[in-house]
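Quick start: read one record
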Amino acid sequence: QVQLVESGGGLVQAGGSLRLSCAASRGTFSAYTMGWFRQAPGKEREFVATITWSGATTYYADSVKGRFTISRDNAKKMTYLQMNSLKPEDTAVYYCAEHLYAYHEPEKSPERFGSWGQGTQVTVSS
């Protein structure tokens, strides 16, 4: 099973930016759709963004569309989430995840992702 390690979280003021990174250990990383999810205290884990194995297609939650950008570098086995114009409501633990199946179309349900990182905390102050 792949190991995923997130980094890049931290404390930032509203309106600021952060770039999250997710490193994968799997050699076949380039075959899998990747996703970013987040979970705030007392709330369920929610979809943020996803990117297909080739990087050709991306989808975003409405709440982050136009502010966040997901990308990947298959040669480096890395997935990124660039977060701009951050808001206090973006505060959460952010997780990267790998889809259950290779070469699968992007999906938004956490149940369709089989491997998860440990998460990285993002805190946005007002």
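Residues 1 and 33 are 15 Å apart (CA to CA).
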